[in-house]
Amino acid sequence: MTTGIQGRQRLRHTSSAFRLAAAVAAAALLAACGSNSSPGTSDNSSAVATFPPASDEARKAAIEKGFLSDTITFDSLNPVLQRSIDKAATPLTDAQWSKLQECLKQTSCETGNGGSLTVALANDGINPWRQTWRAEFTAAAIQSPQVGKIVYSLGVEVPKWIANVKSHIARRVDIIIMNSVYGAAVLPAVQAAKQAGITIIQVGTPMPDEVKSQLSGEADDDLCTPWQDTAKELIKQFPNGGTYALYTGVPGNGSAAVWQPCLSKDLDAAGWRKVGEGFTEWTQQGQAQQGNALFASGKNPDVVAYDYTLEDFAAPFIKAGRKPPIMATDALNTVFLKQVQDAKAQGVDVEAYVSCARDWYSRIGLEYALYLKEGKTIEPFTIPSGAATLDQLLAAYDPNMPANAPIPHFFTAEQENWILSAQA
């Protein structure tokens, strides 16, 4: 692993191997206590349930795996992140794994911990990333003595998502964890949760101020810095400008509303030109359709930037024995590593700026909420990340891992295969 950065990792492949793009300085998170607690952020009647600390070696390994960094130290992390790492570093027992399997087959389940809290996960979509996100959340909940019940919901459209959250409110859950890309559209549901005294946490995509003010807490991804750094490297590579195409999942989502302008602004100022854009619904079918359409169009942009897995955009070019456009993304699936290996064997070079998947951050959201339910306060924060070379990722490549598994996560290949095959 290499130097930690605030944001996401980027990897670039030269004529024979990927080269690590320049990493920005490490950004450690410090604990910060707020002076005022918003409704739903504390429950002094809840006992503080402790979790056994992991060993120093296990903590270090979990940080390197989860953040892709060997420079971020456990002591530099705030208390919420420290508690998240302790649980992630502790493998599930056989009984806990059986309970996780039971939970993922249902829309709600009892943890068997004897805890008093009911926690809800309001999901936006269904794909391998979201399935792993749900499983990581479930693992953390099962490991938490305070949690007695888990409830799940899936809303792939805004009205359904809002209805689901209002259903959680009606069921009087104690905690709602979300990573919504719907931005300001979720405000009515978040306001209702706040008014009901529910601890509601957004972890991942930054929310607009009007939503953030109604949340109990927010742990953000840095969606801008990685794309700005990517733009800098592309401008160096193409000093006379180039062409690019932008893709995302659904129109108007909160993630693309941040990262796409950050990338486009810098590229456009350097003489670049956008020649295409599209939407995939973040599904394999949508990605394959857009990838094939791009190849058939003959536009051949210098760069394709997308906020999910890359392989469907690269595949038509590789199949034709042609070098794909430079690929840039903020997620990585296991299959991409094999695709790069196979392409190289065919004599096809691939260049990419690639970020880790961050799918385990649902653990952080839950830990944030539990921390607040203990009557403690902590200001919203940005989650740190790091950078790794492709050689490091390939060295850890497990051919038994599902091809569509996001990187990284805290499950074995056998467990992840089961998780991605399970449906509730």
List keywords for this structure.
424 residues, alpha/beta, 16% strand, 38% helix, Rossmann fold, globular
What's this entry about, in short?
The chain is of the alpha/beta class and 424 residues long.
Question: Can you describe what's shown?
Answer:
With 424 residues, the protein is of the alpha/beta class. It has 2 domains: 56-222 and 360-387 and 408-421, Response regulator (Rossmann fold); 224-329, Rossmann fold, CATH 3.40.50.2300. Helix content is 38%, strand content 16%. It has 15 helices and 16 strands. The strands form 4 sheets. Strands 4-6-5-7-8-9-15 form a 7-stranded mixed sheet, with helices on both faces. A 5-stranded parallel sheet has the order 11-10-12-13-14, with helices on both faces. A two-stranded antiparallel sheet has the order 1-16. It is globular and about 60 Å long. Mean pLDDT is 87; it is low at 1-46.
Can you count the beta strands?
16
Residue-averaged pLDDT: 87
CATH topology of the largest domain: Rossmann fold
The largest pleated sheet is described as: 7 strands, mixed
| Unreliable runs | 1-46
Q: What's the number of structural domains?
A: 2
The CATH superfamily label of the largest domain reads: Response regulator
Helix/strand-derived category reads alpha/beta
CATH level-1 class of the largest domain: Alpha Beta
Net shape:
globular
How far is the N terminus from the C terminus?
A: 36 Å
Topology readout:
Elements: E1 4-5, E2 11-13, E3 18-20, H1 56-67, H2 79-88, H3 94-104, E4 108-110, E5 117-123, H4 128-142, E6 147-154, H5 158-170, E7 175-178, H6 187-195, E8 199-204, H7 209-212, E9 217-220, H8 225-237, E10 243-248, H9 256-269, E11 273-279, H10 284-297, E12 303-306, H11 311-319, E13 326-329, H12 334-345, E14 352-353, H13 362-373, E15 381-382, E16 385-386, H14 390-395, H15 413-421
